[in-house]
Write a structure and sequence with these properties.
402 residues, alpha/beta, Enolase-like, domain 1, TIM Barrel, 2 domains, 18 strands, globular, binds 2-keto-3-deoxygluconate, binds magnesium ion
Length: 402
């Protein structure tokens, strides 16, 4: 089998997506998600200017060899741009392999380890009352796990909460908008928020919360400790994790489970976190961490240390990434939970997929390959529009983590 054509498809049905399509001489093709929110065109260039020509003529069945060729062969290792491109190639190649074997992808990964995949959704509200209502709506839809984000009194805009009353979509303007952040106000409010959620909805629902890298280690330790009575499923990205040691301090103070890694691209970004058991869930996902080939390495390594997966699944990851992630979640022994944010009808009009949702749980479907695809004709109707993620400043104007 030979690769005869490679296409990079960019579209913007409500938000930007980059999709890679690899076509073989045997009429089989595979697709992979290559979307990196706010930096989409950099990945397009990486693919079009370098990777596409390198793939033409190669045997798509040699997935590991192609992975090594693009990773070691680049000399410049790791980093979100190159690894996102690599993730898209790898996903498309696994799609091709599963189609050639006439199997759903999860079968190639060892068959299913569970009957259904637990997902969590987002409940976002501008204040306590609307947040509580949103949690109730998620429970009504059947979710057993809900990520709770709320506007904080005294802060004009808060992470995870749309200012416009729409579903949360962070890349909201051509150039970055600026948010103002107060750690003090956030730390004082958040335990009260979770006390109210538990009071209203009881102990059975799993609750999650995303700090989005905004605290220092000791502040994160305080929050984790103060949230202990509300038994969170996880506290996500409590600190930026370039310094993996930071997580040790949080661990020393609290038993709140920690999830981290949606911005990681490599096993080397989480090696200490995993082997020192400083986290409980690893959030690297297919598109940004080198595809199924590299994720398998991370998940197997994590399984040695009782660390489970909890893959990123925001709406800036396309249905193709979601499909591949669900096959992976279905097959591995140390699956924890999968994030799910509903794509809009417009986004879904451009992509097809075979995964199915029922009462808070997903199954990847039985279509061969990973079961997701892009309708190129529909995609053409929605050309690329530059959109940037916001930046964040403290009240005194200091640039802070977004
Ligand atoms: O592109 C950035 C988003 O994917 C991110 O802000 C979403 O933190 C996020 C999450 O946990 O879904
Ligand atoms: Mg997050």
């Amino acid at each position: 089998m030979k690769i005869v054509d490679v296409r990079v498809i960019v579209c913007s049905p409500g938000r930007n997506f980059v999709t890679l399509k690899i076509i073989t001489d045997q009429g089989i093709y595979g697709v992979g998600d290559a979307t990196l929110n706010g930096r989409e065109k950099a990945v397009v260039s990486y693919l079009e200017d370098y990777v596409v020509d390198m793939l033409i003529g190669k045997d798509p069945q040699r997935i590991e060899d192609i992975w090594q060729y693009l990773y070691r062969g680049a000399y410049w290792r790791r980093g979100p741009i190159g690894v996102t491109a690599l993730g898209a190639v790898d996903t498309a190649l696994w799609d091709i392999k599963a189609k050639a074997a006439n199997m759903p992808l999860y079968q190639l990964l060892g068959g299913r380890s569970r009957d259904k995949i637990m997902t969590y959704t987002h409940a976002n509200g501008i204040d306590l009352g609307t947040t509580l209502d949103e949690v109730g709506k998620a429970i009504e839809l059947g979710y057993q796990a809900v990520r709770v984000q709320s506007g904080v009194p005294g802060i004009a805009s808060s992470y995870g909460v749309s200012k416009y009353g729409e579903k949360y979509e962070p890349a909201n303007a051509e150039l970055p908008t600026e948010d103002v952040w107060s750690t003090e106000k956030y730390l004082n409010y958040t335990p009260k928020l979770f006390a109210e959620v538990r009071k209203q909805y009881g102990e059975d629902i799993h609750l999650l919360h995303d700090v989005h890298h905004r605290l220092t280690p000791i502040e994160a330790a305080r929050l984790s400790k103060e949230l202990e009575p509300y038994h969170l499923f996880w506290l996500e990205d409590p600190v930026p994790a370039e310094n993996q040691e930071s997580l040790r301090l949080i661990r020393q103070h609290s038993t709140t489970p920690i999830a981290i890694g949606e911005v990681f691209n490599s096993i080397h970004d989480c090696r200490e976190l995993i082997q020192d058991q400083l986290i409980d869930y690893i959030r690297t996902t297919i598109v940004h961490a080198g595809g199924i080939t590299h994720l398998k390495r991370i998940a197997d390594f994590a399984s040695l240390y009782h660390v489970k997966t909890g893959f990123h699944g925001a709406t800036d990851l396309s249905p193709i990434c979601m499909a591949a992630a669900l096959h992976f979640d279905y097959a591995i022994p140390n699956f924890g939970i999968q994030e799910h944010m509903e794509h809009s009808d417009l986004m879904e009009s451009v992509f097809t997929r075979s995964y199915e949702f029922e009462k808070g749980f997903f199954t990847p479907g039985e279509a061969i390959g990973h079961g997701a695809d892009i309708d190129e004709k529909e995609a053409k109707k929605y050309p690329y529009k530059r959109a940037s993620l916001p930046v964040n400043r403290l009240e005194d104007g200091t640039l802070w983590n977004w």
